[in-house]
Amino acid sequence: MQSKSINILGIETSCDETAAAVVADGRAVKSSVxxxxxxxxxxxxxxxxxxxxxxxxxNIYPVVDEAIQQAGLDKADIDAVAVAxxxxxxxxxxxxxxxxxxxxxxLEKPLxxxxxxxxxxxxxxLDQADFQLPAVALIVSGGHTSLYDYRSPLEPELLGSTxxxxxxxxxxxxxxxxxxxxxxxxxxxxxxxxxxxxxIKFPRSLxxxxxxxxxxxxxxxxxxxxxxxxxxxxxxxxxxMSQNQIADIAASFQAAVVEGLVEKAxxxxxxxxxxxxxxxxGVAANNQRRLSLQRMCESAKPPKKLLVAPKQYxxxxxxxxxxxxxxxxxxxxxxxxxxxxKAGAL
Length: 346
Ligand code: KG4
Ligand code: ZN
Description:
Elements (H helix, E strand, L loop, with lengths): L6 E6 L4 E8 L3 E9 L1 H4 L7 H22 L9 E7 L3 H18 L3 E5 H10 L9 E6 L4 E6 L6 E5 L5 H11 L6 H9 L24 H12 L14 H30 L3 E5 L6 H13 L5 E4 L10 H12 L16
Helix pairs in contact: 2-3, 4-10, 5-6, 5-7, 5-8, 6-8, 8-9
The protein binds 5'-O-[(R)-(carboxyoxy)(hydroxy)phosphoryl]adenosine (KG4) and zinc ion.
């Protein structure tokens, strides 16, 4: 007899997307609802925590209801509720955590706490039945840039992370300097397609030879100086630049960021003898990065397999939360109703 599937409701509110999803047995996506707040934060060029929090409060229950409805289930059919409780903006995380705890209390279902960055890794293996371990996981998002030694979905070990800006944050800030629309990642990528990545040699901050940490603030500052002059006294020259000049800056900046990311992933893979490289997080949507990482994996000796999260699951979503929660469910790793959000944990 076929055993009953385990339906997990996932909830994600760590930054600026209110998301809920139902996933069966960790793989079968029954629904995925994402209410994006891009329009609300656009004019500020970045996420404003208080605005994010208020929008999460308005959206959370409609989004959860829609996810359950689209899955064709009743609330009673849900076997557990999982929520990303770290890392992220505390005022945003608290909304998802409170909703999840309330549902668990009312429905008498178990609660599962999920690390948002570990969930990003899960997006890369969502449709992979088997792959060789160990793997190196590179998670690059708006708020984080981290490398992990991945031997199981439950215990990824942090190898390195950014010592200043996250890569996505650098994309967003450089887009503001270049007066490109928010969010910066996709608009820089679009602009960069028209530009020459070798036009300007922005610095590559690879830190020490053995370091697996990242640094992007130097590249960002170099773009700022390039546009405003070293003394920052000049006007932002972007207004008088041609589209080609702006495209060259975008392409050269993107090349510098991508090179740093790929080099660190290569070092990490070599260090732990990885057979596979996993790529996830919002910046993973960047095609240039996928291609460069693919080339690195193919030319490594021995070659490594690259698994990239499907595009719709690169940026924040709740499918990755519900999918990872299945592994915790099977391992009996439940949280209690005193669960709190944690802003900083990696
Ligand atoms: O993972 P995510 O949705 O949110 C966080 O957990 O932070 O990532 C959002 C980030 C933003 O900084 C956005 O600019 C960036 O991902 N992003 C991209 C692309 N699409 C989104 N960066 C580079 N190229 C893209 N195509
Ligand atoms: Zn994220």
